[in-house]
Amino acid sequence: MELIVIAKPTVFKEESNLINQLFEAGLQVFHLRKENVDKVAYQKIIDGILPEYHPRIALHHFHSLANDYNIHRIHHTENFRKERNNGKLPENKTYSTSIHHLADMEQIGQYDYSFFGPVYNSLSKPGYQGVIPSDFRLEKKQAAPKIIALGGISLTEIDQVKAMNFDGVALLGSIWNDPSQSVTTFKKAHAKCLAYAQNLTI
User: Fold this and answer.
1) How many domains does the chain have?
2) What count of other Cβ atoms lies within 10 Å of the Cβ of residue 78?
């Protein structure tokens, strides 16, 4: 079961150092997504991340920065994807996107994976409500990209998300709402997802 961490929407002190610690603890994919942040701020964050971890970063904005760093992952927001009319993607990168309606899975076959959410009520955005029932089970075609659950997921919900047949989880609020516990929370989530990936009893 895959585990992805998405950046806190706002920039904060010592952010890059904390991201390095998450990578050191086993984080495989980090999505750099910031709201209302300019390219210089993106560069500053990436500059603070150790170069050996740059290939594990996925860029949500300023995609040209991938050429300046050793970044192989590009994320297309839902609006960006629709504006480019689902055209063919270059083959030298890993591409991800986001959907908010399961019917849109039919339109994203060329992507490697997609976020879907909010699955639960958001931990970082008050009033942002989850959209699926507790007994939900994801049904998808074999050729469909991996679907990663996003929204309101803490350690408790990881087991439920697995039962819903998602391919992985994306954590945001549960990692960043208390930065002093970020690495500890990540390690616990990582152990859970790794056990599922190895078909171990949890």
Assistant:
1) 1
2) 16
Side chain identity, residue 80: F
pTM of the model: 0.93
Place of tokens 């079961």: 1
Distance CA 64, CA 77 (A): 15
The rounded distance, in Å, linking the Cα atoms of 175 and 189 is 10
Report the Cα–Cα distance between both ends of the chain, in Å, rounded: 13
Task: Return the residue matching tokens 């709402």.
Answer: 177
Range of the domain at 112: 2-198
Which of 165, 154, 73, 63 is closest to 116 using CA atoms?
A: 165
CATH, residue 176: 3.20.20.70
- Give per-residue pLDDT as tens, 62-93: 999 999 999 999 999 998 898 887 778 888 89
